[in-house]
What does this fold into?
Amino acid sequence: MHSVRLLSLPPPIRVVAFLSVSAPTPSLSIPTPPRLLRSYASGRSKEPRAGTTTPVPDQAAPTTSKSLFYFEAGYALFAKRPSRPFPPPFTSPTSGSYSDPLSTHNRSRDSRSFVNGEMIRGITNGDDAVLVSDNFIGANDGVGAWAARERGHAALWSRLILHFWALEAERDHYGGSTSGAPDPVKYLQAAFDQTKEAVSPPNEWLGTTTACSALLHTGQSNHRSPQPVLYVTQLGDSQVLVLRPKEKKVIYKTEEQWHWFDCPRQLGTNSPDTPTSNAHLDVVTIEEDDVVLAMSDGVVDNLWEHEVLENVTNSLEKWEKGDQSARRSGEETYADGMMFVAQELVKAARVIAEDPFAESPFMERAVDEGLAMEGGEFVLMR
It folds into this structure.
């Protein structure tokens, strides 16, 4: 998950922007009261991976945006299974021995991935991909069922599409290169086309992914003063949620897109979906100190909307009051606060995901479909 706070120049705006809890999602070819949260022992750390920025190439030119606002972001990630390494030519592992043919023992042990000679932006989490920049945040949920197929690699698809999507937004200066508005759906279509080319023979890899993002722009209010505006793009079942903590309410959320139960719209191999035909774009006017969440279905399938709202507002209050459990030494920036918010939300989603007896939104939808199920999404998907 990303937690992002929107910042204007100079006054701040908070936006929480992404949370990812990775779990398998069926591909097209495969088929509200308070709750007691149970904690289960596990050999893995209960602390999710977290940070405030995702890497960019060292040689990348500074990107300019005409927006008066920018994100202060934090993200948190948890994957049910470790991410698979990207295959060549997207990575070039060094030789393990001087005796290996065509030895590359003298190369740097750089584990980063590359496409078209450039580092692939974002971070992989299981089969998902996340990216955070000053004006663009994204969360792509790769369909884990492709791992069972020969040459299947959903994580590669989700990461490449997000990489090219961010580059297209940068090239257009997030809508500032022309007098018109940003066009994230156009950027996504270009990213989809470039990804298909990158994974075509002789480097063919199969996969599909959902996609969602929020692009920050500047709009005019009725009083003609600048206001932050989100361009939210949705394809599939991830979710962008905008909260107003001072009023303790949800002011916007995306609608999930499905082919059938547990099979969301997705981009990639064998899917009929395309950004131009199926992606949905909303333009949302927000305020300073609003919180924007971009979440994979690993969160929204395990936590109801009111639980997300309560968790985020409570975490924000803890951090703003300087609670020792919320602040670590030296963590005093807005981004650090957003990272704490993201971590707390991921941990709450994981507790439900691993509880075989928990009630969850995913379980409720399954029952509506006539399926006798209980527990969080990880349990149900086993």
Observations:
- The two ends are 23 Å apart (CA to CA).
- Residues 241 and 253 are 4 Å apart (CA to CA).
- The helical segments are 154-171, 184-198, 275-278, 297-300, 305-320, 334-353, 361-368, 377-381.
